[in-house]
Amino acid sequence: MFRYIVRRVLVSIPVLFGITIIVFLLINLTPGDPVDALIDPSEPHSPETLQALRENLGLNQPMPVRYVIWLRELAHGNMGYSFQTWRPVSGMVWQAMKNTLLLTGLSLVLAVAIGVVLGIVSALRRYSGLDYGLTVAAFSAISIPNFFIGLLAIYFFAVKLRWAPAGGITTTGVDRTMVTDVLRHLALPTLVLTFRNVAEFLRYTRSSMLDVLSMDYITVARAKGLRERAVTSRHAFRNALLPVLTLIGLRLPFLFSGSVIIEVVFTWPGMGLLAVESISKRDYPAIMGVTLVMALVVLLANLITDVSYAVADPRIRYE
Q1: Which helix (H) or strand (E) segment is 308 a member of?
Q2: CB–CB of 309/316 below 8 Å?
Q3: I need a surface site. Which of 82, 123, 131, 200 has the fewest CB within 10 A?
């Protein structure tokens, strides 16, 4: 197992290196100039002023030189400074990641707990009224776009009923350490994210449980006189867990990268909102910092998923 993990980490290094090259090229080859986002278009600026600003930002150098400089600084833990706020990109990414983890982490925990339980119940009561009802609800949640559900939640729960704020992470003038205020702002985006994720975990768990329950060893276990609860918990659920682990592994990057749509709709200051604002303002250092962190998380999530497979299924062994 240890050799397998080391091998996977070594393979991930050139992959990550390739990702940084591709992202750097795509950002720098995109039409436009980040200097245009820094100046007031209503005021005249001489070419000399614009050129001096480019030199101060290091944009006058060739792209290969800028890429090498960025890698060199990154090796020392420096992601650069934002073109817009002049703050360290590492600090911006860290703060946004904490906010995203708070939102997506709570949503994923609730979705797994609720979705897996409902999926098992739906599989054990196949073709019943409850099964049909859960299926219709799950397909409806998957089919409706997240932004539409978010807007509906804002309209009913924030505007009409005034149960929760419409956006942000805290109320203006309130200390961010106030847990109750943060939880009130957290309620609506978490509700929307959980609603969609529960549907996916429910469908995956139901389908996997139905496949496992039709296996011969389940029939043999029942023939031995084992109780249905023991058959379900000891024999069926563990093997049905593999596709669910895959889905959780696919959701791990989402924990750190955030839900762009939901964070924009609810103005939640997380990684998704930071990425959108950085792209719209052509903030090269911030875009590179966010992309690098997301790439690292994706590679780590794939590794964790593979290791979880070996732990959950004794038949899987890595030499």
Answers
A1: helix 284-312
A2: yes
A3: 131
Question: CB neighbours of 22 closer than 8 A, spacing ≥ 6?
Answer: none
CA distance 140 to 196: 9
Cite the residue boundaries of each domain of the chain with CATH code 1.10.3720.10.
94-312
Contacts of 183 (CB under 8 A, 6+ apart): none
- Which tokens is 246 given? 């895959």
Residues contacting 169, CB < 8 A, separation 6+: 99, 176, 182, 185, 186, 268, 269
What tokens were used for 71? 């890698």
Distance CA 299, CA 295 (A): 6
- CA 189 to CA 194: how far, in whole Å? 8
Topology adopted by domain 94-312: MetI-like fold (1.10.3720)
Q: What share of the chain is helix, strand, coil (3-state, %, to 5)?
A: 75, 0, 25
Q: Which residue has the tokens 């001096």?
A: 52
Nearest to 115 by CA among 48, 46, 205: 205
Answer for the pair 287, 27: CB distance below 8 angstroms, yes or no: yes
pTM as predicted: 0.75
Q: Residue 304: how many CB atoms within 10 A of its CB? A: 14
The DSSP bridge partners found for residue 58 are none
pLDDT per residue, tens digit, the chain (319 aa), is: 667 667 777 877 888 788 888 878 877 777 666 665 555 556 666 666 667 766 776 667 777 877 887 777 777 777 777 877 778 888 888 888 888 888 888 888 898 889 888 988 888 888 888 888 988 988 888 888 888 888 888 888 888 888 888 887 877 766 666 678 788 888 889 888 888 888 888 888 888 888 887 777 777 777 777 777 777 777 677 777 777 777 777 777 777 666 788 888 888 888 888 888 888 777 778 888 888 888 787 777 777 777 766 665 555 555 5
Is the separation of the CB atoms in 102 and 186 below 8 Å? yes
What own/partner pairs with CB < 8 Å and gap ≥ 24 does 71-74 have?
71/20, 74/292
Report the chain's C-alpha Rg in angstroms: 24
